[in-house]
Amino acid sequence: MTICPELRAHIVRLHHAEHWPVGTIARQLGVHHTTVRRALAAEGITLQALSPRPSRIDPYRPFIAETLQRYPKLTAARLYAMVCERGYAGCPHHFRHQVAGMRPRPVAQAYLRLRTLPGEQAQVDWAHMGYMNIGRARRPLMAFVMVLSYSRRIFLRFFMDARMDSFLRGHVEAFEFHQGAVRIVLYDNLKSAVLERVGDAIRLNPTLLRLASHYRFEPRPVAVARGNEKGRVERAISYVRTNFFAARSYTDLADLNAQARRWCEGAACARPWPEDHRMTVGAAFEAERAHLLPLPSYDWVLGERVAVAVGKSPYVRFDLNDYSVPHTHVQRTLAVLADEQRVRIFDGPAELACHARCWDRGQQIEDPTHVQDLVAHKRQARQNRGYDQLAQAAPASAQLLQMAAARGHNLGAITAALLRLLQRYGAQPLQDAILDAIGRGVPHPNAVSLALERAREAAGLPPPIPLLLPEHVARRDAPVRPHPLEIYDRHGRRPEHPAQDQAED
Description:
CATH superfamily of the largest domain: Ribonuclease H-like superfamily/Ribonuclease H
Low-confidence stretches: none
Shape: elongated
Largest sheet: 5 strands, mixed
Strand content: 15-25%
Strand order of the largest sheet: 3-2-1-4-7
Distance between the termini: 143 Å
CATH topology of the largest domain: Nucleotidyltransferase, domain 5
CATH class of the largest domain: Alpha Beta
CATH architecture of the largest domain: 2-Layer Sandwich
Mean pLDDT: 86
């Protein structure tokens, strides 16, 4: 601010004549205090430095400075507790304000601008873009970003997870998009790339190493907390958030990826190249294309591979949903190979089932043939168990069933009826009754039931009571002993000789 002569003279007069301090002059004239100081300094007036007021924290400043020098990240709350133990009685809010000014600041570092050769390097990272709701499932929306370090060409692909199979798919599709591979790919310390790191010793993910061997590139992690080493992918992610994803509407994941592909080929390539604003990123990539490594002659096999255990029900649990398998493969360990569209289930090299992938949760995806085969197997199993039970209890039942089959009768209904008769009458009576029905040439449960009843009446036995029947049902089959009818006749007529009747009674 330029100080006019009138204002400067007014400031000097207030300072000399009225003895106003700098702050009072600044407030009353509506100017900044540095303006007042410059006006006084221009007149040769030296202001005396004000001595700071004593504070309760002053005796503890050496201790605080020494502690912060040894432990720079020590919190103010812990430091406040330490000085309170040494006699400090001040307010914690004032203490925090004082410690903030005493905390050592990191030394500013200068960085060299990194330059790379064409086709030499690419940088890769994930970016979290929110969530997608599919039915009852809430899936994370993750953006895989690969940027070529020389031309700054961006590849963008969205996934609903950040698992290893999605990480590998992103690399494969990015190399196909760029029509070649680079020699070095930079990563930060995400688990898909770095499993363990102790100092300079790094253990890379073996699956990533196999992919790198297939495409002939070197996976290279950057140093810990050195984001500047892969700043180009960080800036590319920021550019994706603001230029592509902000206020973007889409129907599903496939629609979003189709829009991302068009954006990468269009607007992202049309932006100016940072190294020379007279060129575009697309033009710089055309110059870089010839320096990329050629793609392998055969494709990398994509898909998530997991081993799953099948319980007693013919379903495998994969990614929050159940997928059906043939009932002949229950209680086994099978392999699942899944991508974004399909879920394939294998037993060794044999493919057992192929389902459309469901991104909802808690769903049961079935192949109708699997269910029908299981129902038929259960029905056949029940019949076989009935046949075995009848054959052991009444061997003649096999001949009766053969005769019934020759006449086109329902063997399942006959078997069920014979089993009920076996439960009511027992094994030997049923065997005799079946032989009687065969002798009469009537292979039907009704003929067997009539033979059983004739044998029971001939033996003078009560009707059989089924086991475990309710009491009111069992009472219906209980034998009833009728009373003599003469009793009712005697009570109905009038006695002619009462004394005689009393004697008879």
